[in-house]
Specification:
This protein has 109 residues and is mainly α. The protein is built from 3 helices and no strands.
């Protein structure tokens, strides 16, 4: 049990940056999807919004992969890694949803 708690602490410490980035990325997704939904974009502006949305989606995937890699590195047993994945997957989803909800509430989305 002590090793499991130490592993949890290590993962929390190493993945905190990726979680913070995920929150900011989800806010960017809300803002730019709102701009896209407004429909007043043409030409370069429309392309810019789509490029930002694509880059942000890729960045969210990179953040998820970073957390996945943090969980799976080390000499811990497989069951311990699966437990950590089950604990951190809801955390990651919660961070993204809280960013989306916060951005949506602020923008009256």
């Amino acid at each position: 049990m002590k090793a499991l708690l130490q592993n949890y602490s290590r993962i929390a410490q190493e993945s905190s940056g990726a979680l913070a980035l995920s929150l900011m990325e989800s806010l960017v997704l809300v803002v730019f999807s709102r701009k896209l939904k407004a429909g007043h974009l043409e030409g370069v502006d429309l392309v810019f919004v789509w490029v930002v949305l694509a880059i942000t989606a890729v960045a969210l995937a990179f953040s998820a992969c970073s957390i996945w890699q943090t969980i799976w590195k080390g000499n811990n047993p497989e069951w311990s890694k699966v437990v950590m994945l089950c604990l951190y997957l809801p955390v990651y989803a919660g961070v993204i949803f809280s960013g989306l909800i916060t951005g949506g509430v602020i923008l009256n989305y």
